[in-house]
Amino acid sequence: MEYSFISATILLILVTDPLGNIPIFISALKNVDRQRRKRVVIREIFIAYVILILFLFFGHHFLKAMHLSDISLGIAGGVILFLIALRMVFPHPDGMFGGENLDHEPFIVPLAIPLIAGPSSLATVMLLASRQPNKIMEWAFAITIAMLVSAVVLVFAGRIQRWVGERVVTAFERLMGLILTAIAVEMLLKGLQDFIKSL
Question: Per DSSP, what are the bridge partners of residue 109?
């Protein structure tokens, strides 16, 4: 499964799910001073960006150290994406973190990790780097674009939710979840196909 710059950027935007993160960011930052919220969002996105870039450039060393193949990464990535997509289509009533109530300013967890740089996005960047290492600078640029989209959406999370309404945000997230489900199935089938060929 070959990716282009555009398809990789769209995939990264889908797996980082900025629209789906709007209600969680609003909830996590409700006890943070209004004047400081923008700084916190930008800081968390920057941390997630650094982590994704590190996994893009050095993730293959981790795979080698753990004796993991591209095939196993492809299958695992497809399974993780599928599970994330299911949570987008069928969200849990308590949210992703079981209704956890943060009474302090969040730092790294849960906003940067795992909301933005979560298992699905980390697996995706490692998969891109391992499948098409000759395009690694394109993938770095795709991550940059995806993080800029997340920054714009999440900085204006409160306004977006007020403008379009919570139902529209939820409907759009479920549509993105449906698309991500198809991508996950395709990735899983490709991994299984590669595994059968290797036998």
Answer: 107
Look over the chain and give the mean of its residue pLDDT values, rounded to a whole number.
85
Q: How confident is the model over 82-93, as a mean pLDDT?
A: 75
DSSP 8-state assignment for residue 69: -
Beta carbons of 120 and 81 less than 8 angstroms apart: yes
Is the Cβ–Cβ distance between 161 and 26 less than 8 Å? yes
Question: What is the mean predicted confidence (pLDDT) over 143-164?
Answer: 93
What whole-number distance in Å separates Cα of residue 50 and Cα of residue 195?
32
**Termini Cα distance of the chain:** 19
Which element (helix H / strand E) includes 124?
Answer: helix 119-131
Say what the pTM is: 0.77
Q: Sign of the C-alpha dihedral, residues 179, 51, 112, 93?
A: positive
Helix (H, G, I), strand (E, B) or coil at 1: coil
